[in-house]
C-alpha cells in the first residue's frame, strides 16, 4: 500500500498542497529560493498536511479552507528537517543531498528560518489566536525535544521513559497537532477534536518507533538514507536501550554506545548485536500498542469513509519499510 492509497480521500487537495508548497516559499533572492525549495522538490510522505485534510474531511466535503493550514504544517516540518540536517551533519535525506550538503550550514539555518516564517504567515491569515497558540506551543516543545536528543547522545543510562518523552516531541507532537487543527479549524465538538488529537499522538509515537526500528533493519535504498545513521550520531533508540539491558553482550554494547569513536567505527557490530537481541521485537510490540490506542480513539468519531482511512494508516505503519 502506498501513500496514494492511504490518502486517496484527499488526493486532489494534496496535489494543490504540493503546488503551494513551492509557491509559498518563493523568494526573489536566488540563493534562498534554491535552498528553500530544494527539500520540497525532494518529495516526502506529506503526512502532516494529509492528516489535517483527512481530519477536516470527517466533517466537511469542501477542504479549500484547510489547504493553507496543511501547507503551513508541512513547511514547519520541513524547517525542522533543514535544521536537523545541520545538527546531524547529514548529507542525504529522501535519497537526495540535504540543503546542508548543497549550500552549507549558514544558508541552511537561514533557509529553515525563512520556511518557518512563511508557515506562520500562512496561518496568520486565519486570524485565529487559538490555532496560533497551538502551533507556538508545539514549536517550542519540538525545540525542547531536539535539545533533549542532542544532550542524550551517547547516554547509555537513559531508559524507556526518557526515550518516549524524546520521540513525543520529535515526531508525535506535530502529527497530533495536524489532526487536532484539522478539526479545530472547523470548530468541531471538543471531544471529537480531542479524539483526533489523541489518535495523532499515538500514531506519531508508533511512527517514530517504527522509524527507529528501520534504522537497524531497513533496505538502505528503500529507506532513502544510510542505515545505522542514528548509531553513528550517538542517538540511542528503543531497540538499543532494550539490548543494553537484556542482551548477554549488553555490557559490551554499553561501552561502545557510550563512545563517539566506537559508534563511528563499530556501527555494523553494534547493529548486529541489537538485531541479534530481542530489541527489535520489543520495540515493534511497543509500536503496536500505540497503534492499538490510536485505533481505539476512532470510536469517538463519525462513521464516514475517512474513518477507514485512519484505520488503514495505522495498519500501514505497523508494516512500513520506509
Any chance you could write out the topology, listing elements then pairs?
Elements: H1 3-6, H2 11-24, H3 30-41, H4 47-57, H5 67-88, E1 92-93, E2 96-97, H6 99-103, H7 105-124, H8 129-152, H9 160-184, H10 190-217, H11 220-223, H12 229-232, H13 238-246, H14 250-257, H15 260-265, H16 267-276, H17 279-297, H18 305-317
Antiparallel strand pairs: 1-2
How would you sum up this structure, described in words?
- This protein is mainly α and 322 residues long.
- It has 2 domains: 7-127, Farnesyl Diphosphate Synthase; 129-315, Farnesyl Diphosphate Synthase, CATH 1.10.600.10.
- The chain contains 18 helices and 2 strands.
- The protein has helices at residues 3-6, 11-24, 30-41, 47-57, 67-88, 99-103, 105-124, 129-152, 160-184, 190-217, 220-223, 229-232, 238-246, 250-257, 260-265, 267-276, 279-297, 305-317; strands at residues 92-93, 96-97.
- A two-stranded antiparallel sheet has the order 1-2.
- A hairpin with a 2-residue loop joins β1 (92-93) and β2.
- The radius of gyration is 20 Å and the shape is globular.
